Amino acid sequence: MQRVAPEPQEFDRVLSSMCTEPHPVAREAATRFFATNPGDPATYQEVAALEARAVDALGDIAGLPDPHGYIASGGTEANIQAVRAARNLARESGGRPSKTDSPVVVAPESVHFSFQKAADVLDVELRTVPVDEEFRADLGAVEAAVDDDTILVVGVAGTTEYGRVDPIPELAAIAHDHGAQLHVDAAWGGFYLPFTTHQWNFTHADVDTMTIDPHKVGQAVVPAGGLLARDRTTLDALAVDTPYLESTSQATLTGTRSGAGVASAAAVLDELWPDGYRQNFESSMADAEWLAAALDSRGFDVVDPELPLVAARIPDDLFDALRAADWRISRTASGELRIVCMPHVTRETLRAFVADIDTLV
Ligand code: 0PR
């Protein structure tokens, strides 16, 4: 029997990534489904069934008992599709949101850059508003920016730079008061939320769509993003006819898709939800708090971690020296060091990192 080659990427010193080492069951499932295409579900029925199972599991995580959605190529596709669905629904009269010819998406300035791509390809205006001093969406600024052309308000649950969770129930209320939809970008944070004090989800807040990516905290292989929608009409608004396939319509943005990503997501969700993901959250959060305290005690300004992501202001020359020492680290737009405590980041790795800081300063 042929051996599977080891992963070329060495994760040991990767502290900047929102992806992680795939779980063994994800890796194994991926290798079995490389040659399948969930874009043609009538032909590749086994992987289509796995996709339905993965979407149901994502629905469990997000508090959505009857989820509509699919496994996307990543958070970028899921976000583009959420904007596209809102735009298409707005074109149909009578629905929510209301009809407009110049659609606007209102989002905090902390949104991921995938929304710029969405606005560009879909010809909608992306109107970003300031965040508060804790880096969360400022409700007053959102309220002031929303108008009759607004089709969608976006909240982020686990921002890319600071790991912050926006006030989602309040954003949903603002959106719906103005006839717009509410999309939550939980691409990274979605797998942590059930274990935090954030007691909102699809059940408790009026969320319309959500991005939640198995290939990030979910430990699936790349590519496996997740798009969830409360209503069937959202998927219908994305669907095009597929005359020469046995299945009659397709709601995804890509055509041929990775069966490996889909199968890996189904397998790892089966394996880890809920207990494995809870354990990951608890140990990663403890690591983030340990690192925050270690950096704080050395005199660096630390942004208190809300989810397992630590940002801290360190001198530029120290950042460069750590990069030169082969640490894969990154900076926020305003220059803070940013460490993402993904499942592959262990306490031992963080101790070695802090020891290098002590040597280099
Ligand atoms: N939404 C949020 C909140 C994100 O953080 C990201 C990606 C996306 C959407 C887009 O997801 P995809 O990249 O799956 O399309 N955030 C990280 C970033 O852009 C992704 C990342 C992953 C970066 C691995 C580096 C890396 O090594 O920074």
UniProtKB/TrEMBL annotation:
Record-level GO BP terms: carboxylic acid metabolic process; coenzyme A biosynthetic process
Residues the record lists as N6-(pyridoxal phosphate)lysine modifications: K216
Signal peptide (from-to): none
Cofactor requirement: pyridoxal 5'-phosphate
Alphabetical list of InterPro entries matching this protein: GrpII_AminoAcid_Decarb, MfnA, PyrdxlP-dep_de-COase, PyrdxlP-dep_Trfase, PyrdxlP-dep_Trfase_major, PyrdxlP-dep_Trfase_small
Pathway field: Cofactor biosynthesis; coenzyme A biosynthesis
UniProt keyword Nucleotide-binding present: no
Catalysis performed (reactions): L-aspartate + H(+) = beta-alanine + CO2
Gene3D superfamilies in the cross-refs: Aspartate Aminotransferase, domain 1, Type I PLP-dependent aspartate aminotransferase-like (Major domain)
Keywords: Decarboxylase, Lyase, Pyridoxal phosphate
GO molecular function: aspartate 1-decarboxylase activity; pyridoxal phosphate binding
Enzyme Commission numbers on file: 4.1.1.11
Family named by the database record: Belongs to the group II decarboxylase family. MfnA subfamily.
Task performed by this protein: Catalyzes the decarboxylation of L-aspartate to produce beta-alanine.
Name of the protein described by the UniProt record: Probable L-aspartate decarboxylase
Organism: Halogranum rubrum
